[in-house]
Amino acid sequence: MDCIFCKIINGEFNTNFVLENEYAVVFKDINPKADTHLLVVPRKHVESLNDLEDEFLLGKLMMTVKEAAKKAGLSSYRTVINTGKEAGQEVFHLHIHILAGNIKL
Question: Would you say residue 26 lies in a domain?
Fold first, then answer.
């Protein structure tokens, strides 16, 4: 599979994880759209939210968002999930953006 996020998860790049658990990894976006811009990426490859059938995994991802935001010292933040090319999804591996501070969407 030629998925950049799968390669990051598998350690093929020297990516510094802000947080990781059994279900997801969290790292800084390389093209930030806010003062703080983190990505929460499930370890399991799922192309988009439309392809996610696992309610348990969705819950774990949202709890990871909460944990990552707390660890980053954020009390206020925006979450974004782009689903599909027309909605701005660029990497076709489900991911949740955590944005805080000066947001430039």
Answer: yes
Give yes or no: 95 in active site.
Answer: yes
Q: Which residues pair with 26 in a beta bridge?
A: 19, 40
Backbone dihedral angles phi then psi of residue 64, each to the nearest 5 degrees:
-70, -40
Please check whether residue 105 lies inside any domain of the structure: no
From the list 37, 93, 95, 97, the catalytic residue is 95
When divided into structural domains, the chain yields a total of 1
Give the tens place of pLDDT for each residue, 36-73.
999 999 999 999 999 999 999 999 999 999 999 999 99
The answer to whether 35 and 102 are in contact (CB under 8 A) is yes
